[in-house]
Design goal:
- This protein has 14 helices and six strands.
- By secondary structure, it is of the alpha/beta class.
- The protein has one domain.
- Helix 1 crosses helix 4, helix 3 packs antiparallel against helix 4 and helix 3 packs across helix 8.
Length: about 280
């Protein structure tokens, strides 16, 4: 029987990277799981590379290695793309990156001599030709993240102004698919919503916070909620586990049967006799 797949949250990667017991933690994880990388985790960790003066370049890359696991890294596609293909068997949306694109991005970052070479586009890729050079534009990552975060915040602000009740699971599912250009049939809406229960509950939690007159939820200070919400789409695959550092996901998606696929990092360490 194959081991379940595991996606590490960025905060978990950061904790492991600076742990004195890093090697022991990684060995145990590889005994229990097959690590896979989500584009959101990859984007967040890659985005950190452009910050500062480059003195933490190796630490930033180490977090990427931890997320990817041992051997050849395995990447999944963008959350909604992944869910549409897995649940409804719909084709890959046009213009959306594929898993192989993320693998190439990852390999360029790890092959770079230093951050300057990475940004200058002088990283040699032997398999692509003797004189072939590649680089990494951090602004591509930042724009991708900002677009998602901005759309998330603007949506909640609109919800707050209109003060409407949360959408039904089917309406919500149709909205998610429509963002990638798919108009779902009634049967597809039901199937899509059913397999995205945790992501839907998380969104409803935020929706209610946005419309609660007594709530002090600051939209702009919680942009990263978009990342958490996106990661939950992967739970439509019962073979995938998501390892996180805090209880936020479990609290906001409370009642979802998919919460059994969320692993708390601290609890995992304790259960396996490990320490940071």
């Amino acid at each position: 029987m194959e081991k379940p797949k595991l996606i590490l949250d960025t905060s978990v990667c950061g904790k492991i990277a600076v742990s004195r017991n890093k090697d022991a933690i990684r060995r145990r994880m590889h005994q229990n799981y097959r690590l896979v990388v989500s584009p959101n985790t990859l984007a967040e960790l890659s985005d950190a590379i452009q910050g500062g003066d480059g003195s933490h370049f190796e630490t930033d890359r180490e977090r990427l290695r931890i997320a990817a696991g041992n051997g050849t890294p395995t990447f999944v596609e963008w959350p909604v793309t992944f869910a549409l293909k897995r649940i409804l068997r719909l084709p890959h949306p046009p213009k959306m990156p594929k898993a192989k694109d993320f693998e190439q991005w990852f390999r360029v970052i790890l092959r770079a001599k230093d951050r300057d070479a990475l940004f200058a586009g002088t990283v040699r890729r032997p398999l692509l030709g003797r004189n072939y050079r590649q680089g990494f534009d951090p602004q591509i990552v930042r724009r991708q993240q900002e677009n998602g975060e901005t759309a998330h915040v603007e949506r909640l602000k609109t919800v707050s102004r209109k003060n409407e009740p949360p959408p039904s699971p089917e309406t919500w599912a149709a909205e998610m698919a429509k963002m990638l250009g798919f108009d779902l049939t009634p049967e597809q809406k039901l199937a899509f919503a059913k397999e995205l229960d945790a992501a839907y509950r998380y969104d409803v939690f935020l929706w209610k916070a946005a419309t609660d007159p007594n709530n002090t939820y600051d939209f702009d200070k919680h942009k990263n909620d978009w990342i958490d919400a996106q990661q939950l789409f992967y739970l439509c695959d019962p073979d995938i586990r998501l390892m996180v550092e805090d209880r936020t996901l479990a609290t906001r998606s409370a009642g979802s049967p998919q919460m059994g696929q969320v692993v708390r990092f601290k609890e995992y360490l304790k259960q396996n006799g490990l320490k940071l």
